[in-house]
Amino acid sequence: MKVGVVTFPGSLDDVDAQRAVRLGGHEAVALWHGDHNLQGVDAVVLPGGFSYGDYLRCGAISRFSPVMTEVVEAAGRGMPVLGICNGFQILCESHLLPGALVRNQRQKFLCLDQRLRIERTDTPWTAAYAEGQEVVIALKNGEGSFVADTETLDRLEGEGQVVARYLGENPNGSLRDIAGVSNERGNVVGLMPHPEHSVEELCGTGTDGLGFFALATLAAEVFA
Amino acid sequence: MPRVVVDVMPKPEILDPQGKAVLGALPRLGFSGVSDVRQGKRFELEVEGEVTDEVVAQVEKMAGTLLSNPVIENYVVRVEQDA
């Protein structure tokens, strides 16, 4: 499987995401924000960081970069897209995912070993987990509070589009403890915590994040 | 040159942690009597030529597309003459 990782000006975790993709058993392909080209990849990761310095709003400028035209189009065709942290913000700004991410309730940048519960497992990014599985994944964000109107939140819960929820104390004020959501189809997933930082015992919080990069169901589809 | 101003504010139902932090700082500085603070953004667009209805409509479009995120923010567009 070829998994593209987009680098925007200000991306920080693109190289870590590429490494996680390789540890997941796939080929990582570096994609550039300024290209109208996905280089034939089977899936795309939008990594964490501070694209365009978080100017205007997090993800607001990246949304209009040339590569995002291609990502939005491919996502519409069903290509798996995972947005991590800043990538999640970009997906919300692109309207590929509902809601928005605003400043943490207590205004502080967080860096935590965060417990999560995986709630939706019929997405290509979470198929390696069991429904209700509890994992520990690195969380680091300044603007990670997920918000949406009540109607949208109810719809997300009703349709099973909440992918992961924070366990224990809510770290950033996200409504209904939401840590990650998907689109209806499930191919587009946004996640505030950083699974790419939880893929090796040597550094990080263990290897609970590796499942996001297994893409096992997708591989089965592509090679079927 | 005419100027078009776009004010962008967080929607009333969206928690505004920055406004809350400012509200918390005021009494510490000895200012009293403020019951709420909300923080937004102001954009000043210098426009070439006359501000026609068409130009205002264009700015409305900019405000809804880029300057604000309609999920969390409201905006108001107004024209300032002889700015």
TrEMBL record, chain A:
The active site is at residues 85, 194, 196. Pathway: Purine metabolism; IMP biosynthesis via de novo pathway; 5-amino-1-(5-phospho-D-ribosyl)imidazole from N(2)-formyl-N(1)-(5-phospho-D-ribosyl)glycinamide: step 1/2. It is found in: Cytoplasm. SUPFAM superfamilies: Class I glutamine amidotransferase-like. Its EC number is 6.3.5.3, 3.5.1.2. InterPro entries: Class_I_gatase-like, PRibForGlyAmidine_synth_PurQ. Transmembrane segments: none annotated. Gene3D superfamilies: 3.40.50.880. Pfam families: GATase_5. It catalyses: N(2)-formyl-N(1)-(5-phospho-beta-D-ribosyl)glycinamide + L-glutamine + ATP + H2O = 2-formamido-N(1)-(5-O-phospho-beta-D-ribosyl)acetamidine + L-glutamate + ADP + phosphate + H(+); L-glutamine + H2O = L-glutamate + NH4(+). Keywords: ATP-binding, Cytoplasm, Glutamine amidotransferase, Hydrolase, Ligase, Nucleotide-binding, Purine biosynthesis. Its main location: cytoplasm. Part of the phosphoribosylformylglycinamidine synthase complex involved in the purines biosynthetic pathway. Catalyzes the ATP-dependent conversion of formylglycinamide ribonucleotide (FGAR) and glutamine to yield formylglycinamidine ribonucleotide (FGAM) and glutamate. The FGAM synthase complex is composed of three subunits. PurQ produces an ammonia molecule by converting glutamine to glutamate. PurL transfers the ammonia molecule to FGAR to form FGAM in an ATP-dependent manner. Part of the FGAM synthase complex composed of 1 PurL, 1 PurQ and 2 PurS subunits. This is Phosphoribosylformylglycinamidine synthase subunit PurQ. It comes from Nocardioides abyssi.
UniProtKB/TrEMBL annotation, chain B:
It comes from the Bacteria. Its EC number is 6.3.5.3. The keyword Transit peptide does not apply. GO terms for molecular function: phosphoribosylformylglycinamidine synthase activity. Keywords: ATP-binding, Cytoplasm, Ligase, Nucleotide-binding, Purine biosynthesis. It is an enzyme of class 6 (ligase). Belongs to the PurS family. HAMAP family: PurS (MF_01926). Part of the FGAM synthase complex composed of 1 PurL, 1 PurQ and 2 PurS subunits. This is Phosphoribosylformylglycinamidine synthase subunit PurS. It comes from Nocardioides abyssi.
